[in-house]
Design brief:
Keywords: CBS domain. InterPro entries: CBS_dom, CBS_dom_sf, Diverse_CBS-Domain, DRTGG, HotDog_dom_sf, Ser_kin/Pase_Hpr-like_N_sf, Thioestr_dom, WH-like_DNA-bd_sf. With 436 residues, the chain is an alpha+beta fold. Helices cover 34% and strands 25% of the residues. The two termini are 39 Å apart. The protein folds into 4 domains: 57 residues, Orthogonal Bundle (Arc Repressor Mutant, subunit A); 121 residues, 3-Layer(aba) Sandwich (Udp-n-acetylmuramoylalanyl-d-glutamate--2,6- Diaminopimelate Ligase, Chain: A, domain 1), CATH 3.40.1390.20; 117 residues, CBS-domain; 116 residues, Hotdog Thioesterase (Thiol Ester Dehydrase, Chain A, Roll), CATH 3.10.129.
Length: 436
């Protein structure tokens, strides 16, 4: 039987998009305490089922799929541009398809105004009205107001009219930047992206016997299972190695590993991979906020997914990739070097190469060299950096990686950053192999 908390979440999920909810209303309708209703609404917000909008309240919204994560709601646009809502507050939960800058004559502008668009324009009252009539929201730049008739129309059509003190170019840049940041997040795989949706995981109960474990092994051909209590909360993990030496009638909870490492659906896949490799874990239980079992992921599932994503052409550029963009490979005295120029974006307030960027450049150089020596996925284990001299803006630097030790699971490298053959920074890098 589901708990009151779960019943509230199911109730919220069935509400129409745009429906306003409150703690008191939920508590009254479902006969629960205000505290229980509040906690459930907060969880619904973390799951993307509802969104709290300033001066409007908490509204049921359409849960974004990963494929739509780069699309912004009008409420998010208000926050991005520090805007004020002049009308149409009831439509703030809606998603904009694209934005259009209205720096043209009205006849030409009309070719670009479509339902779901956001028109960015100055104090042109007739344009505001025509955009709303064509089912597009309006963002007025320069801090200007609009007419009472436009505000009334916005309220009737539930299409927001927003005012921002910034100019058109600035607000367009801010919105574009927010969408670009979303694109990078979209490509960061989470556990929920690889978790089988329609496959229930195999698991054992804490009061099952060792004999039940052996029966499960014969039925499923698996050798490790999560263990749950009477409320389906994960309390342990049990493997074939754990049950050795126990009698068939002994309880599972005596042999299992208690308080196992777990992941949630919002754990990044890279973090899960690191945890599994570092701790030598083959299977990771995935739980919700109440430690209830949702599914399991294997080490092989995680590594496969990470390898697949690395081959995709649409992956957004991260800070690491942007920092290394201007560097190219050269050969010098039979040695491979990476050469590039220190750009203004790489420096601190004093015009010197920042520590963070220096770390990124050396790490990327080391990993590129190691990938040539072996196949598979690598991760940094230890990093020690020594700055010997300040590295100025517009300086051309050579980064020279040298392998000190290359074992089956671990590699050590010495990496030097040089200017005119003089060492200005030096690092010792240790990396380990993430086995499949």
């Amino acid at each position: 039987m589901s708990t009151k908390h779960e019943q509230i979440l199911q109730y919220i999920e069935k509400l129409e998009i745009g429906h306003k909810i409150s703690v008191r209303q939920i508590a009254r309708d479902l006969n629960v305490s205000d505290g229980t209703a509040y906690r459930a609404i907060k969880e619904a917000e973390s799951q993307g089922l509802v969104h709290t909008i300033e001066r409007v309240g908490t509204v049921r919204v359409e849960k974004k799929q990963r494929s739509d994560i780069e699309r912004l709601t009008f409420a998010e646009v208000v926050n991005i541009v520090d805007g004020t809502v002049l009308g149409g507050k009831a439509g703030l939960h809606k998603t904009l398809n694209r934005f259009v800058i209205g720096a043209m004559k009205l006849e030409a502008m009309m070719r670009y105004i479509e339902p779901g668009n956001l028109l960015i324009v100055g104090n042109r009252d007739n344009v505001h009205r025509i955009a709303l009539e064509n089912e597009a929201a309006v963002l007025i730049t320069g801090g200007f107001d609009t007419t009472p008739n436009v505000k009334k129309l916005a309220n009737e059509l539930e299409l927001p009219v927003i005012s921002s003190s910034y100019d058109s170019f600035t607000v367009a840049s801010m919105i574009n930047r927010a969408i670009y940041d979303r694109l990078i997040k979209k490509e960061i795989l989470m556990v929920e992206d690889v978790l089988p949706k329609n496959r229930k995981p195999y698991y054992l109960h804490h009061n099952d016997t060792i004999a039940r474990f052996h029966q499960f092994v014969r039925e499923t051909a698996h050798s490790r299972y999560p263990v749950v209590d009477d409320h389906d909360r994960v309390v342990g993990m049990v493997t074939a190695k754990d049950v050795m030496g126990y009698e068939p009638q002994d309880p599972i909870e005596r042999a299992m590993t208690k308080n196992p490492i777990m992941a949630t659906t919002k754990t990044s896949l890279a973090s899960a991979a690191h945890e599994m490799v570092w701790e030598g874990i083959e299977l990771l239980p995935v739980v919700n906020d109440h430690r209830k079992l949702i599914g399991v992921i294997s080490r092989q599932d995680v590594i496969k997914s990470l390898q697949y994503m690395q081959k995709q052409p649409q992956i957004g550029e991260t800070i690491q990739e942007l920092s290394f963009r201007g560097f190219h490979e050269v050969e010098k005295s039979g040695q491979t070097l990476f050469r590039g120029r220190i750009t203004p974006q790489m420096t601190d307030a004093l015009g010197r190469l920042s520590t963070g960027v220096c770390t990124t450049l050396i790490t990327e150089t080391a990993m590129r060299m190691l990938r040539r020596q072996r196949r598979g996925d690598l991760a940094i284990q230890n990093f020690t950096l020594y700055f010997l001299k300040p590295i100025q803006i517009d300086t051309v630097v050579d980064i020279s990686p040298r392998i000190l030790d290359l074992g089956r699971k671990q590699a050590k490298m010495d990496v030097e950053m040089m200017i005119d053959n003089q060492v200005v920074a030096k690092a010792l890098v240790t990396a380990y192999t993430m086995e499949r």
